[in-house]
Write a structure and sequence with these properties.
CATH topology of the largest domain: Quinone Oxidoreductase, Chain A, domain 1
Strand content: 15-25%
Number of helices: 12
Oligomer: single chain
Bound molecules: zinc ion
Number of strands: 16
Largest sheet: 7 strands, mixed
Radius of gyration: 20 Å
Order of helices and strands: EEEHEEEHEHEHHEHEHEHEHEHEHEHE
CATH architecture of the largest domain: Alpha-Beta Complex
Amino acid sequence: MRAMVLLGPGQLVCQELPRPDPRDEEIVLKVGAALTCGTDLKAFLRGHPKWPPPTRFGHEYAGTVAAVGATVTGLREGDEVMLVPTAPCGSCFYCQRHQENLCTSLMDTYALGGYAEYLTIPARVLRTNLFAKPRHLSFAVAALLEPLSCVVFGLRQVTVRPDDIAVVIGAGAIGLLHVMVLRALGVERVYVIARNSQRAGTARQVGAFGIIPSAAEEAQEAVLQVTAGRGADLVVECTAQVRVWEQAVLLARPGGQVILFGGCPPGTLAAFPTARLHYEQVRIVSPFHFTPPAVRQAYELLCADTLPTAQLLSGTYPLVRLPEVLQRLQRGEGIKYVMIP
Ligand SMILES: [Zn+2]
Ligand SMILES: [Zn+2]
């Protein structure tokens, strides 16, 4: 079978590898579609601390069960499924406290390798985070389960009211997914801070109430203007830049909430005025990954098929063209691409 293998920064090749066989408690998935993600681009350009080369990658995918291990129940060859590539152990300190996103062995059984014809899905994922794909969803849309689970998990950390004025910083895939989910939760006034005019257009198409066409640093005036001088009820940072984290905290109203969504490089520090947190009671959360209840909620949202997900998918390519597609993303072209093995 064909698989894309990352040999080092900038070195991505298509290799012919043996098709995997499932162990007793596993399945082998035939990938129907895999989606590109900002994390993949980072791994391609600079490497990824948790994915030492040579490595297969691709973590947003859906497909068809191609082979079933001897002890697997409830799944058959030919079943169309959607999943997230990790699952918690269920028994460690964090899992027992329902903080499964911090499970100490979360990354040990990461089903990485969606950029291939086949890959093995471990028992843990089968037990917790794999679902039947409804026929009406395409494999590409079903593959949005992973990023959508992250977004849903983040929004579960805050209180969302329909009359909130929300400000989403960044109009990449994650920012756009936040707009969609906030709209689905009944929030009408979702503003998006976006510099890239093409992405701003997409933000409008997926339901943004207004666009603030500037850098986050310059947006404070505009946010005050649309919130009667108070600041936003909810601010969602989706850029993974320290200076935007710092800015996001300044855009919330007293008593407002801030989601710092984008993970910044290891070792970085951010600074906030203490008065914002104390006297002005701004609440900050910074969600990482997801828990099984968030995955299930994301699954139900996708199955309802009411989110304008098609707007996120910028084109469909055969798997072997992945290097070229990643270069497009690097140039800021498109949001997510669909790779078909
Ligand atoms: Zn991703
Ligand atoms: Zn655990």
